[in-house]
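Follow-up to my post from last week.
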Amino acid sequence: MSEISAPKGVRDILPDESWKWDYVFGVLRKTAADFGFSEVHLPIFEHTELFSRGIGDTTDVVEKEMYTFTDKGGRSITLRPEATASMVRSYLEHRMGTLPQPVKLWCAGPMFRYERPQKGRYRQFWQVDFESLGSASPYADAEIIALSLEAFRRLGLSRLEVVINSVGCPACRPDYRRRLTEYFSSREGDLCETCRDRMGRNPLRILDCKKESCRQVTEDAPSVYESLCGECREHFDAVRSSLDGLGAVYRLDKRLVRGLDYYTKTAYEVLSGALGSQNAVCGGGRYDNLAEAIGGPHVPGVGFAAGVDRILMVMEQEGCSFGKEPRLDVFGVALDFRSRAAILSVVDLLRKNGISADMDFNDRSMKAQMKAASARNARLACILGEDELTRGTVAVKDLTTGEQKEIAGEGLAQAVKEMLSTLKG
RNA sequence: GUGAGCGUAGUUCAAUCGGUUAGAGCACUGGACUGUGGCUCCAGAUGUUGGGGGUUCGAGUCCCCUCGCUCACCCCA
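User reply:
Got it. Predicted complex:
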């Protein structure tokens, strides 16, 4: 169509949608505060090595999905593909280890991944990210999961499924890995090509292959639970019993492994039945080795990221409420050349009194201005003509009922406020 | 990166087997209604049929290339 267009995989959030985003962020902000999380604003680009070391060199995200470039100072810079690594970097850089632990932070903003776009997947997408840093307690895990579920509940999402798993720790994962490799070797012929490739690199990933043939093989694969070390097993049991205590409904899924290297112990995802193929609305878990991986001291942490684009999509699909759409209070209408100059002052006066007001700037007919007032869905029209000018008044019309009254100029702001408050809605 | 489907006005869609000047609803602008919106009626504006090449007397329609969009795989939010 037009040669003017945004790059592939990115999009504009226009006014008919942006107010809904405001609503969602408002709910999330309040939920964060209720759970004791403070907001931080982080940069959207970082040194490339933060991600390559933190997320893992062999992950898909780092191998082929990063927006990486060299800046004018010769540094390798990457547009963040996720926020957790930045969060931990910020914690370390600002010595938050000296604060009372855990430090609970959240942030919101765009993430970038070079992928082929499809439904629910963009190259720039928004996430809200919650991280609880400095505590190894299973209750921190449970709190994080509970927080994500409460946020979704408040937004009105219903068709959700929570799946959790434990991916072990450096003490027990090698053993599990060995047992998996052993098992898959015996069934190698039944695996797909990519899974055979995964055997050497990361056999855990075979578990979440969606091919039917591979799923049959993984059905009988050794379970993580038998391989978990005492500490991991205890931790996982504690997370589950606290979730039970909170009344959270979840499903254990031994196939859930997640794509980032830094996860230890708890891994979880929240899936929506209202989405298509890209149905994860939130994902997270514990990452006790991430801080060390990026060159810091040992700092345990747990957190999750939720996709805002997908949340909006699910809400739309499920018919959730977005609160009320912001509405213009007053539209100023002028009859002729003289009143046009005066109506600007009227609009200005209203604005300075906290009343939202707008007017026509194209010298259009009164009828056209009234039409514009309706099109803008204004509550009231303030009309000015010769008669009003000589009398020093303004005609105020309720655009819902059609009632109109004439109000003296001095009392206008007050009178409009009163009319708006009785309208309400 | 791989596969499939689709590209006609701002938008949703028409256009016979390949046939003459590419149409309609909605939206937009103006008017009927020279001081009042929503309803009604009338009028108007808007297209490189995504782009390029080919076949043909003739292409929106068929073929090739390309770009874009969409969905799926991979992976994830």
